[in-house]
Fold this protein.
Amino acid sequence: MAKAQRPEITTLTAAQLEALLAQVRPLVPAATYQLIAALLQTLQWIMAAFEQKTISIARLKRMLFGHSTETTAKIFPPPPQPDSASEKAAGEPKAKRKGHGRNGARDYPGARKVKVPHATLKVGQLCPQCLRAKLYLLKTPARLVRIVAQPLFQATVYELERLRCALCGALFTAPAPPQAGTGKYDPSVGTMLAIMRYGAGQPMYRMDKWQTHFGVPLPASTQWELIEGASTTPARVYDALIGIGAQGRLLHHDDTPMRVQSLRRQLTQAPPPPEGQNRTGIFTTSIVSQVGSHSVALFFTGDKHAGENLDQLLQRRAAGLDKPLQMCDGLSRNRSKEFETIFCNCILHGRRMFVDVVDDFPQECRLVVESLRDVYRVDAQAKEQKLSDAARLALHQEQSRPVMDKLRAWMNEQFEQRKVEPNSGLGQALTYMLKRWGPLTRFLEVPGAPLDNNICEQALKMAILHRKNSMSYKTLNGARVGDAFMSLIHTCQLNRVNPFEYLTALQKHSQDVAKDPTRWLPWNYTQALASADTG
């Protein structure tokens, strides 16, 4: 590869950049302008950070591309043991890492099972080897796994024989077999397309190309028609899930930027709002609600941020219920403005601020990271022992409270004794933790309060993957379809339910679902399915 020539470095002041963007804005579409502005502002920020020497290459890499891992052992690797080489030379076997073996037959629950009898032997026959005892059947058969490749969507062409009378010209066509169905596309096609698009982030143009390779074309426009047609029944269940999720004892929530073309045009073309009421952001909010033993994942896309979507959800909460636990990060817009909740903050957001400055303050950051590691070990012990919320709280109060009290005293000491500059990276990280100490340590006061918001951030990866691969929604209607399917797919995953089988069952029994969607939730639909089949 030829060595790239060094480009001519061009620098712009903030005023020059604003003037340039003002000239570009009327020349390009609104969405393109937003992208150009974001790219230029990012480049200007990076150049300013390097010029002022406020950031290192390693820290910039973490900020731009994220952390590959944030485990304590990765941030602060243990020193090599001096006798490790001699132990290996002595031939001591290396311990195997867990979770890295091959998948066995039990790991393929969706595989078709074929029973293969023995060709020559049967139960009760005399053993051909010892000729003294009879053979009996083992409960566990030997298993072989065979995996083959095939297109995701297959097509069958039924060639119906046609006969014509040689005299009167009457035409007689063979009737279609039952397996030909009543339409060109089986209802399962729309379901699978929805799972691929919203569950796996597969854009429709890529699926179009994939199917063309196999000689079974499925145009992108047709895909959307099938997905939209398959969304009516899931939308009813989605609305029922919202009502159920509002009753949860624990509500995790967060949001991520999203692109909706029609809404972006509407926001950019609208007249200027009053001072202080400018609203330009578009978000997808994820709310994961713990309702009894079940988890409900909900997605909402629009110009409302996480706190406003939470308020809309809580409007459907039954009167008389206890205040819910609300877990989120420390942004003020995440707070509920209309309802009283037990406010909890994610302790990992505070930890991440120390990880970002670990290169500049290694000793101080090690103290914080290792202290929080001890707290997580206590929480892991509670999960392993399957403790109740009350027993988990008692365990944290006994073992985690001394660790957190000592950490808080050390943090206050850094400011009181002027050991840290408040405006430095370490000072800002300490300020963040101390300012939110109550919400961050709610797990020491309230039964069932979580340590972090990881479950919600993992749910948001579904929306982020969609944004990354499909770029944007075209309309708000498309966003609502995506919200409904994402909510049902991720709720299935949280409750260990096969999303394809579940959504297919909803399509087959759409009339029953319309009568009472609450009987067709991911964790109880099998009972409704059994009664519908017998009825």
The CA atoms of residues 344 and 442 lie 6 Å apart. DSSP finds 21 helices and seven strands in the chain. The longest helix spans residues 389-416.
